Every structure is written in structure tokens, then in C-alpha cells.
## 1
Amino acid sequence: MSFEQLDALYRRVIMDHYKKPRNKGVLPDGNVTIDMNNPTCGDRIRLTMKEKDGIIEDVKFEGEGCSISMASASMMTQLIKGKDINTALKLSRIFSLMVQGKDYDDEQLDLGDIEALHGVSKFPARIKCATLAWKAMEKGLLSTNE
């Protein structure tokens, strides 16, 4: 597959998650809720997770923002649901390195659709958009471990 074809595929994946977000909504029985925003562009998110015995049993998000921010939240919720906290935090570190264009070791973890956001590294102003939901997830999970 050529670079142009791969780039077009990634754009389609991002737009699919933006137009038909997964896990969007309210999680009434969640026990972790984090609100975050990106003041530079106006993106905002409310992430709600149901964590039990170190496992993210369910996760949903609400918010408004650009296609990168909302697609990233959709992809993240799909990826972390059912994972243990340590795995979710590892995925967040990998994602952060990936969107910054830095080398990362995926540690045999399936990155799923989030690989489509690899190209964000070419647009430094969009990195905060892509990482907003991930930062909310980290903040929420780290606060449950204190």
C-alpha cells in the first residue's frame, strides 16, 4: 500500500470515528468522572469510567471539539474498555509518544484504530487535541490509585 493510500485510509478511519463516535454518552453508574478542556482550541470532554478491581469495565465520553479530538476519544474508549489500569496507562504513554513522532515500543499491544492518528505528529498544534481524552483518562485512573 502506498503512502497516499495509507494516508487516505487513516483519514477515513478518523472521520468514521468523528461522525459515528463509539461509547459517546453518559455512564450513570461510573465511579470515575473527569472534565477537561483544551483552552487553545476550545475542545472539551467529560470522561466517565466504571472501574472495578483494577479493570475498566465501561467507559463513555461526552464533549465537543474538532474531528481529531472527538475521534481520538472514540478510539480510546474502544481500546481501553475491559483493560486493566496498568495496560490503559501503558497505551496512553505509547499514544503520547506516537503523536509526538517519537519512537515507541508497542509491547505487543494491539493499538487498534489509534494508529490512524500517527500523522498528527506532523501538526504540532493538533497534538493537544489528540491527547485530550487520553490525559483525562490518565488523570482519572491515577486519582483512583491514590
## 2
Amino acid sequence: MSDLLTGDFYAFENLLDEEERRTLVRVREFLKERVVPVANDCWARAEFPLDLVQGYADLGIAGLAYPECPGPKPSGLLSGFLAMEMAHADASMATFFGVHTGLAMGSIAACGSEEQRERWLPEMGRMAKIGAFALTEPNSGSDVAGGLRTVARREGDTWVLNGSKRWIGNGTFADLIVVWARDIDDAQVKGFVVERGTPGFTATKIENKMALRTVQNADIALSDCRVPEANRLQRALSFRDTAKILRRTRSGVAWQAVGIMLAAYEIALSYAKEREQFARPIARFQLVQDLLVRMLGSATACLGMVVRLAQLQDAGTFRDEHSALAKAYCTTEMRQVVGWARELLAGNGIILDYDIGRFVADAEAIYSYEGTREINTLIVGRAITGFGAFV
């Protein structure tokens, strides 16, 4: 196979085995044929293409990471490349898929009982049921570990949830929403699977976003929302269990950032070869080549970082600070790279027709979610110095 992404300058993709590469190329072709052609239109209208969900399901990759779902288990490297590939096509749809397979399914896989995993994961793996992850609140983001205000009160075999959540991706149409709430009896954070249609649960679409407009983020209200004990994630006993989910999904966000960088570089390179000024393609000018090489260098360095991160994951030596450093560094470089690409396209860089404007805007959301740069810096800082500096 020789159909590498143009921006994969060191051919990292060749680290995958042949079967994994076939899976990646199959996903790449689906994204190119079905997702890319509608990405700008969906983004402009802030509407989610529900008709594409079956196409994603048919790829057969949503449940690959989980033993409860059929199929060969992927390496961390393949999972990373899939996340990168999706963001390379459309960051909004990459976010949709990551919320479903990483945050929602990951929470059930890591924190659910055997019965709960068997009950929910196979259907979610087939994408017959879509998941969401409700942790962030209107007044709790970076301080959510200690500042969670949504509460859960037990009444016999039922839990009563009260509170609100914000920025919940897939929240308007998800079938299963993993809600994190503080138990009023022991003050520990616990996880609950709330099924769509449960009385006391309402989700309202957040309007007027400037990034990831295709993603259906929701404000969620929980008013005496009653959830059976059978829907409490049995192994989610404190925020430490919640953090286990975030460790893995942060690495996925770093891969998404690389996908966005590669897309921005490839758009800029193609444009530079075709756009003429002063009777020659602008790719012939030294300053333009300098911008292109800067973009390629940043993307290549970050791709090398996340490839090593995936290898640590596969080796079982993956730690919180590893994913935190990758998320902080790669998303920071991503903002710079999309900025350079926008600069190279000049005025055309702000028009959706040239794609880069969408990537510039979406990069702002990727930069912030799954832990800001500052919070991830503090996670790494604590690991290397031995001192916590969060407060």
C-alpha cells in the first residue's frame, strides 16, 4: 500500500500491520466519499447528518476496543490512527465518534459490572444505541473533580439525580447518557447511565457556536431524575475512576489534533501549488515554503509523539502525565499550524469553500476540551516535580 496521507512525511502509518492498514484505508475511503463532501454544509447549518450514522456503523470499528463486541482487538496505534483520520476529514464527526466510543463506551467498559457491559456495549458497538458523556457543568469545568454540583440521592433501589450539565456532545439525540454526580451520603463522584426519555431528564441544544458546529452539544437538566440502581456503574466509586476514562480519551484528542494539522498542511500545500501571484505559483516563493515546512515540522513532531504514546499504551506503561503532555503540546501546535495555513490562504482562508476556515474554528474547541492546556500542564508538572500546584 502506498496511499499514505501527504502530510505523513516519515510514513508512520507503515508501522501498522497489513490488516490494520486495510482497516484504516477502508475508513479513509468512507470519510472521503461520504463525510468530506457534506462537512462544510453540515457545519454551516449546525446540523448533524444522522443519515451517516449507519455508514459509521457499517465500518465495524465502534466496538473494536471492547471484548464484549465481536471482531479483532485493535492496537492502540490503530485506534490512534483512526482518530487522526476522522479529524483529518472533519473534527465535528471525529468528536461525535470519540464521545460515543471513547467517553461513553469507555465509561461503561471501565466502570460497569460484567452484566452492564454485556447489556450495553454490544448494541453501542453496532451503533444501534448512541452514547454521551455528561461530566462538565455550567459552573464546573477545570475544577470538576472537587466542584461537581450535580447530586445523587439513594432511595431504596433508585437514585434521584438533580443538577445540570453543559457542553454534552451527542446530548440531544443520544440513547444512553453517562451522568456523573456526587453521592450526597459519602460525597464521592459516581456514574449513572440515564436512558433517553427518562422523566426529569431534558436536553437542549446549545446554539450559536463558532466551533464544532456539527456536534450537537446540549445543556442537560436533571430534575428529580430517577435512575435504577441497576444503571449505576458498579465500579465507579470516586472521581479517580472518572479520571481513568479521561486518561485514554485525552490521548485520542492529541491524535485528533494531529489529524487537523495534517489536513491544514495538505490544504495549504495544494493551494500554494495552484494559486498564482506575480505570474507564478506562490509555492515558488521562499516565505511560502518556510510556512509549509513549519507546518510539516510541527505535524511530524506531534505525530511522532502520539505514535510513541500509543506504543506506551500497548505496552501497559501509559500514565496520566503521558496523555496530558501530548494533549497540551499537540493542541497548542495545532492552533499554530492552522493559523499558518489560514495565513497562507489569505482572504480565502476564511471562506468555507476552501475548508481551512472550518479547521481553524474547530481547532479552538479541540484546544479546550478534555482538559485545558493549563490543567494538563499541571498534571505533567506534578509528575515531574513531585509537587501539586492545582490550588
